Amino acid sequence: MNFEKPEAPVNTSQTRSEPSRRFSVAPMMDWTDRHCRFFLRLLSKNSLLYTEMVTTGALLNGDHERFLRHNEAEHPLALQLGGSVPLDLAACARMAQEHGYDEVNLNVGCPSDRVQNNMIGACLMGHPQLVADCVKAMRDAVSIPVTVKHRIGINGRDSYAELCDFVGTVRDAGCTSFTVHARIAILEGLSPKENRDIPPLRYDVAAQLKADFPELEIVLNGGIKTMEACHEHLQTFDGVMLGREAYHNPYLLAEVDQQLFGSNAPVISRAEALAQLRPYIAEHLQAGGAMHHITRHVLGLGTGFPGARKFRQLLSVDIHKATDPLALLDQAGELLQGR
């Protein structure tokens, strides 16, 4: 299997069914790149994976082939877009479909100053009709699902009535699936990291939204860290989305297929996952890439067992000095034996 060569753009929207959003891994800037997604797919075949947010400007004015590149093994896979110009988003949604993505998602949740200045992310919650116009333009352009990820509000527009107005307006444009980060976003004075921690989680607000819009698919995001929590939230919501926990403790995904999708396949071990990643790493090295491009995403695989510190050291510190990086990978793999 050729891991590094990008797939030729193919419109597969007519052959792929709509992806299940029962369990997904959140789009995370600088984290959920194609190497991370390939690794996570080894742990779970059914989880829906998202790209990092890609802006419309990057796709329309930059090297869109590089931004859209992915391995066929990553599916089911969604592209998250950042933007607020309907025609631009429609053009980028078409690119997503042509490159075989299973879904295109509009970011209405990122609180950073940088994206606010370009009318991207959470600030769009203050402009529900504009979001609706964007969604309609994207839906008119493609046949794959168009979804929205948003907060429960922003400072100055954080009442439940305003949240319902936002969701209802976007629903009327044809969106039927909303991923709700159950915190408001504070658009001034807090960093993106602080916006993930300081505003309190309000699962009750998200649950009320599901009750008031029962016809919509509502996926819960924010603060979910265990399979037990996933099971609990799935009593109320149509799906759960994990963010940082899925990255820092990726082996949690090894239980997803059996526990949430009813798979009878055996749970992959940590050692098996690293062994299956090895050919992908080898091909990346042969293509001139650096091993840490991939192994930085694997460090959390050692979470929770004796020897985890040594495992992380091998793949984060020693890797930069190794003359034979694959031998170092094998050494790290030995620490996972029986795990």
Automatic annotation (TrEMBL):
Cross-referenced Pfam families: Dus
Region (Disordered): 1-22
Reported cofactor(s): FMN
EC number: 1.3.1.91
GO MF: flavin adenine dinucleotide binding; FMN binding; tRNA binding; tRNA-dihydrouridine20 synthase activity; tRNA-dihydrouridine20a synthase activity
Alphabetical UniProt keywords: Flavoprotein, FMN, NADP, Nucleotide-binding, Oxidoreductase, RNA-binding, tRNA processing, tRNA-binding
Catalytic site positions: C110 (proton donor)
Keyword Repeat listed: no
Class of the enzyme per the UniProt entry, highest EC level: oxidoreductase
UniProt key word Transit peptide: no
Residues noted as binding FMN in the record, renumbered to the chain: P27, M28, M29, Q80, K149, H181, N221, G222, G223, G243, R244
Site (Interacts with tRNA): N107, K193, R196, R309, R312
Domain DUS-like FMN-binding as annotated: residue spans: 25-330
Catalytic activity: 5,6-dihydrouridine(20) in tRNA + NADP(+) = uridine(20) in tRNA + NADPH + H(+); 5,6-dihydrouridine(20a) in tRNA + NADP(+) = uridine(20a) in tRNA + NADPH + H(+); 5,6-dihydrouridine(20) in tRNA + NAD(+) = uridine(20) in tRNA + NADH + H(+); 5,6-dihydrouridine(20a) in tRNA + NAD(+) = uridine(20a) in tRNA + NADH + H(+)
Similarity field: Belongs to the Dus family. DusA subfamily.
Database matches in NCBIfam families: PRK11815.1, yjbN
Function: Catalyzes the synthesis of 5,6-dihydrouridine (D), a modified base found in the D-loop of most tRNAs, via the reduction of the C5-C6 double bond in target uridines. Specifically modifies U20 and U20a in tRNAs.
Name of the protein this chain belongs to: tRNA-dihydrouridine(20/20a) synthase
